User: Fold this.
Amino acid sequence: MNRRSFIEKSSLGSAALFSPWAIPAFSRDHTLKIGLIGCGWYGMVIANAALKEGGVEVVAVCDVDSAHLSASADELEKSQGKRPKEFKDYRDLLETKGLEAVFIGTPPQWHALQFIAACEKGLDIYCEKPLAYDVKEGMAMMRAAERAGNIVQIGFQRRQSNSFKKAKELIESGKAGKIHEIAAHIHYTPVLADATIQEPPATLDWEQWCGPAPKLPYRPIIGHKAWRLEKEYGNGHLVDWGIHNIDITRQIMGFDIPSKFNSYGAINEYSGKITTPDTLNATMFFEDVPLTWQHRLWGTGQLDSQYNNGVFFYGNEATIFASDNRVVVQPAGKDKELEVLEIKTENMQQNHVADFLNAVKARDKKLISCTVEDAFLSTATVQLAMISYYTRSEIHWDKVNMNILDNATASNLLARPYRGPYQRPA
Assistant:
C-alpha cells in the first residue's frame, strides 16, 4: 500500500471502498455467527457485549488455556442457550462451518497472524488494540484487509466517550483558541504478580501462548492479564493503555502520525520485575503541535488525582482537560472561572461492539468507528515512541515511504524476528 492510497483510506476512515464481491446486507432477523479467539478476561468482555446487543451467536471459542476454554464455553452456553465449539488452535476455529465474523482478544504478539488468517477466510473482524505488536505487522494487516474487503473494527472504545466528544466540539468551536501544545498521561500504581520463574499452570500451553514472540521462562507477572508491562508481549504502559489517550487525541485534532519522536525514561521502582519503563516521557511532533506523553507507575501521580488519567489541550485562550467522564475548561486570564463538566458515558465497550455488529449486518463500512488504517496510525505512533526509548535516539518518520530515516538501529525494530516455526506475514 503506497502512501497516497493509505492516506486516502485512513482519511475516508469508515467510508473506505468495498471489494467487488461485497456481501449484501443481512436480513433483520439474521443471527450472526461469531468465533471468539482468546476467551480470557477481555475476550469475554467483547463476547458478552455482543450478546447484550442481540442477533448474534458465539458458535466457537478458542484458547490455549483449557481452563479459559471450558469456563468461557460454560458461560456462553448459559447466556445464549447453545454451547459453542471449543478449539485450542485458532486455525481450526476458522474452519467452523457457517462462521461469519471473529473477535480477536489475544495478546498483541498473536494479532497479526490471527487477523490475516481471518481475512484470508473472508471473515469480518473485531480485533482488540493495539493493532499489532510491531509496525511492519500493522502494515501487513492493512494489506490483508484491503485484499479481503471485509468489515474491520479495532478496539479503541474511547472513541465512544461522550466527554471526549464534548472536548472535540469545544476545540472545534474555538473555545481554546489556537492549540499550541498537548499533554497526555495515565499515572497509576500497578499491583504486580509474582515475578519468580516457575512452571506454568497445567491448563496453559505456554509454548503456544508465546507464539511467534520469544519464549521466556514462565512467570505469573508475564502471564494472563499481567503481560502488559513485558517488552516481548505487551511492550509497556504507553502501548497497552496510553494508546487510548493518543488515539482519541488524534481523532479530536485530526492528526495522522508524528514526523518526529523523542523519548526517555527508566525502570525506577520495578527493576527485575518488569522490562518496560515505569517512568516515561515521550514527545511526539504532530506537524506544528507537540504532544507529550508521561507516565509514572509509582508515587502519587498528579497533585489532584482527578487529573491522573486524561489529556490537556493547551490553547492561547483556554486549557481544556478531557478524561473518560469529565471535561474541565480553564479560560486564560485572571479571575476566570473554572468550568467543570461531568459527562458520563454508559457502556463504551458495548457501544463500540454495537458499531461493528451494525456495520457487519448492514454491510456498511461508514458505521465503523475505527478502521484498520486509522488504528495503524495510533498503534505505529506509540510503537515509534517506544523505539525512540529503546534506542535512546530521536526518531524521524518518513510519512511518504513509511520508514525511519537515517537510523539503522531503530529501523531494525520496525519488524521483530519471528520465533520458529512461525513466519512473518508479507
Summary: Residues 3-158+349-370 form a domain with the Rossmann fold fold (CATH 3.40.50.720). The radius of gyration is 21 Å.
